[in-house]
Amino acid sequence: IEQSPAGIQITPIWTFKCEDEIRSNVAIADGKVFVTVYDNNLYALNQKNGEIVWKFPTSDGVGASPCVYEDTIYVGSSDGRMYAIDLRNGRQKWYFETQGPIYSSPKVRFDHLFFGSDDGYLYALNIKQGRKVWKVNAFSAVRSSPYIDDERVYVGTEGGYVYCMDLSSGKTIWQAQAKRAVTSSPCFYEDVVVVGSTDTTVYAFDAGTGWAI
């Protein structure tokens, strides 16, 4: 940050030029910055100087944010696959294929990976082998990123519903409805689930019952 007669100017420490749009959040781990880009790639950049360390190609644009857990980075792609990649060298460990693009950013809880797909399902995978533990039909595209507590999973859908599901089985505990799509990701505070909708409304639901507060 520099002070000049024109005011405060912020000079980047470094920049990195990609080939297409960046629509996601970055993740930082192991001295690297991980960023997904619509040029089909996940990039690993040196945190200090922005130089590319490695890149991992998928078959289509990547709009979901990456999730780092231990020595692995998990990311979904518009090619319909969820990838597990070694964050040290960019090598693929496994992939899991859905029947639609993945824009939902994955979350890890209790050694399981949770995410939604445009095929209308919410998935729970074992993070070691990428094996499906359960999947739940949400009846419309799931682009929201799930919130997971000790017992339940909360997620929105493009069909305008917010679901609360049992973490171990995926069984629906309650569902609530907005007037339009819930692409926004739910947040949680003191037994209240808060989420926005494209109907221009922010909703607060009782986490136990789904009643609108």
Briefly, what is this?
The protein is mostly beta strands and 213 residues long. The protein has no helices and 21 strands. 0% of the residues lie in helices and 46% in strands.
Written overview of the protein:
The mean pLDDT is 95. The protein is mostly beta strands and 213 residues long. The chain has a 4-stranded antiparallel beta sheet, with no helix packed on it. A 4-stranded antiparallel beta sheet has the order 7-8-9-10, with no helix packed on it. Strand 1 (2-4) and strand 2 form a beta hairpin. It has strands spanning 2-4, 7-9, 27-29, 32-36, 41-46, 52-57, 67-69, 72-76, 81-86, 92-97, 107-109, 112-116, 121-126, 132-137, 147-148, 152-156, 161-166, 172-177, 187-189, 192-196, 202-206. It is 0% helix and 46% strand. The N and C termini lie far apart (44 Å). 38% of the residues are buried.
Descriptive tags:
single chain; 213 residues; mainly beta; 4-stranded antiparallel β-sheet; 21 strands
